[in-house]
Target: Phosphoserine aminotransferase
Amino acid sequence: MSRAFNFCAGPAALPEAVLQQAQADLVDWQRRGCSIMEMSHRGADFVAIAERAEQDLRDLLAIPDNYKVLFLQGGATQQFAQVPMNLLGGKASADYICTGVWSEKAIAEAKKFAQVNVAATDVANHFRAVPDVSTWQLDNHAAYLHYTPNETIHGVEFDFIPSVDVPLVADYSSSILSEPLDVSKFGLIYAGAQKNIGPAGIVVVIVREDLLGRYAAGMPTIMDYAVAAKNGSMYNTPPTYSWYLSGLVFQWLKAQGGLEAIAALNARKAAKLYGAIDASGFYANPVAIANRSRMNVPFTLADARLEATFLQEAEAQHLLNLAGHRSVGGMRASIYNAVPEAAVDALIDFMADFERRHG
Ligand code: PMP
Model:
């Protein structure tokens, strides 16, 4: 069987070329007689792989020199705690914008460490838009502002970068590397790997150097960004294979023409899919047009009883993982960087055919 089109929200599709390279490298990497998984993380070979991955990521995002790039573990979920542990710097409170389930989880965790001021939330509107900035109620004493540029479950994406006087912290898990980004606007960016970076098991943190070292008493060493930075993310054994695969994805992205090229492709893919949904009268997406995610496209069917049939028929046509998140139901097509335009075309054709037969 040839590879299917995979619309999974995460762990998500990887570029086929990356998987093929990994397959070629798997058993015996560059005639060293062993795989990357079997090498010391401190040996010259792996250190070169790790450094190249970091450099390629720096090139792709044009990360300024006064930012550290960390490759950590524990996923984005660990960052929900690690951010307040490291960034409060003696202050008591932090601002959060709530645009969906992942914002809510970040807020719940931060409450263990800080007084959380939810400066704006779209919960009453069932997370269908980014609250207008004029309604945000920021706290003058906040240590930082945290937000989720792309909410993976609700498919809600910010169409702007907030401008605030405190360090801006962003959970970019589901939209990092989907378009160029001005990193200098942020104090800290974090992103779980398993969507646009690589396989699960790694989380990338990009942090401005002056925010390091605000050590909170009693913080475990492994949680300290400054320790990770000082040790090149090798204070303990890093997830070497995930790091290597992420590096292959960065090389692949460069070969696609970098983030401007991938952003144009992503815009085209999303416009096609939303266009088909809006034109149908059978499928619907409830998100405010300006905040529709380019990465995660949730949609409903006119008759929810057809959902199981839709998923079954889609799978039979090699269109995988289209079920919405268990907390919201419906359908969701995640169309990250590695999901080709042909996958979106095939999905649109299938949806039109399904509507003709069942609509
Ligand atoms: N934040 C966002 C925006 C996510 O989409 C996810 C995972 N889907 C997470 C956080 C949690 O990531 P992890 O499972 O890597 O902890």
In short: The two ends are 31 Å apart (CA to CA).
